[in-house]
Amino acid sequence: VQLQASGGGLVQAGGSLKLSCAASGRTFSGYAMGWFRQAPGKEREFVAAISWSGGSTFYADSVKGRFTISRDNAKNTVYLQMNGLKPEDTAVYYCAAPAYERSWYPPYGYEYWGQGTLVTVSS
Question: 51 to each of 14, 31, 43, 69, 95, how far by Cα in Å?
Fold first, then answer.
């Protein structure tokens, strides 16, 4: 499984960014997907997850109401729309996928990771 995240960058507080993660190597539509982030000096933390069909989503409290996860199974891509960005959202963002088809235990069970894309929010 290969995951390629993109879309990070520098944005002012209150701004928006949309991250993308292109997946390859297996049938994308059978697997949930997730986003995680790791800020400098901190442990990696869960951000959002979406089920294989897109019918279920799950968010960390810190991003609920500001971030939206979505997917396009025809394009093998998962997205993270980030609005109302805050300086504390600054981190490297990783997309992740579970090992097993149709498994849904967010924020647990993720075994494959992309390379990460840096999001920097200036105050």
Answer: 28, 7, 24, 10, 14
Q: Cα–chain-centroid distance for residue 64? A: 13
Report the pLDDT value the prediction gives residue 112, as an integer from 0 to 100: 95
Closest to 22 measured CA to CA, from 4, 48, 1: 4
Least confident of 43-47, 77-81, 108-112: 108-112
In the numeric block, which tokens belong to residue 113?
């990771």
Identify the band that residue 14 occupies on the pLDDT scale cut at 50, 70 and 90: very high
Is the bond preceding residue 107 a cis peptide, omega within 30 degrees? Answer: yes
Can you read off the two tokens belonging to residue 21?
């993660």
Beta-ladder partners of 57: 50
3-class DSSP state of 29: helix
- Read out DSSP for 1-20? -EEEEE--EEEETT--EEEE
Residue 89, phi then psi, degrees to nearest 5: -85, -5
- The two structure tokens encoding residue 10: 């520098």
